[in-house]
């Protein structure tokens, strides 16, 4: 990332990178949420989805390829400001940590700047995630659909429990995003540093961006996956299911399914993580280079 670029350029370029992320990665996100939230089979019943491929196949058979893009309106609407704020927070975090413009940040300082960015995004991320997950778990093309879309879902949630219902799962979201964002940005900067010599060609820089962005996405989810499972279950559960919030979700999950359940849906996440986040950082780097060219003083 350009060390001379302002947080404003990080904001604008991050928004463009976020759109690239959603367009490339949403189908695997839908499968992840369905695997995370599928009900446990009763005695004598078969499991709803046997795994990633089975979930993908059944979704396409019942709902067509459009079923893989269910709930995309919510993250696509919110993703530009979410990623914009995330990258802005990272750029601002780096500025706050630096004592002078030429200081090279340590890996710990990069992690801290990334974690700082995770705090910024929760106000938009939490309601967007709540709506997205509720739309994604609606099964089948012919089955009754409770929510007709993003706006209808938000309206019904507000009618049922006010703004508190829309923001259900905010604590889980911030517990996921703060450490995961720190790992995300630190991994990207570290791998770019390793792969790109000072005299690197533009082609090598682009390849390094793809590799570093993809690896950053994987590192992000390795850290954030357990909190994401808890968040998905809390946000899609009927009201009153978990009176004590995340504590009840965690307790029930441990009792019924064990620690491995904290990584339910990890396969589609990892399949999605590399290309989606590679696309994000390619979009970000292209946008910030363009802004540095057209508005060097911004």
UniProtKB/TrEMBL annotation:
InterPro entries reported for this sequence: MCP_dom_sf, MCP_transmembrane, Mitochondrial_Carrier
Native species: Papilio machaon
Entry membrane topology: Multi-pass membrane protein
Family: Belongs to the mitochondrial carrier (TC 2.A.29) family.
Keywords: Membrane, Mitochondrion, Repeat, Transmembrane, Transmembrane helix, Transport
GO cellular component: mitochondrial membrane
Entry's Gene Ontology BP terms: carnitine transmembrane transport; mitochondrial transport
Compartment(s): Mitochondrion membrane
Membrane spanning stretches: none
Solcar repeats: 5-96, 105-194, 204-290
A Pfam match: Mito_carr
Gene Ontology MF term list: O-acyl-L-carnitine transmembrane transporter activity
Protein name per UniProt: Congested-like trachea protein
